């Protein structure tokens, strides 16, 4: 089994309310689960873009 880690982030009350509202609208069990899943999606998107950029740079050279 993989080891899990705990993270914390600082948000304003307004940001927290927006996260809670979005989590509720998307039917997530908690806003922290919503934040975790969205952050992972964004991380994957950034990694894919970086790999694509590196592939395009290498093929041009």
Automatic annotation (TrEMBL):
<dbReference type="InterPro" id="IPR053842">
    <property type="entry name" value="NikA-like"/>
</dbReference>
<protein>
    <submittedName>
        <fullName>DUF1778 domain-containing protein</fullName>
    </submittedName>
</protein>
<dbReference type="InterPro" id="IPR010985">
    <property type="entry name" value="Ribbon_hlx_hlx"/>
</dbReference>
<dbReference type="Pfam" id="PF21983">
    <property type="entry name" value="NikA-like"/>
</dbReference>
<dbReference type="GO" id="GO:0006355">
    <property type="term" value="P:regulation of DNA-templated transcription"/>
</dbReference>
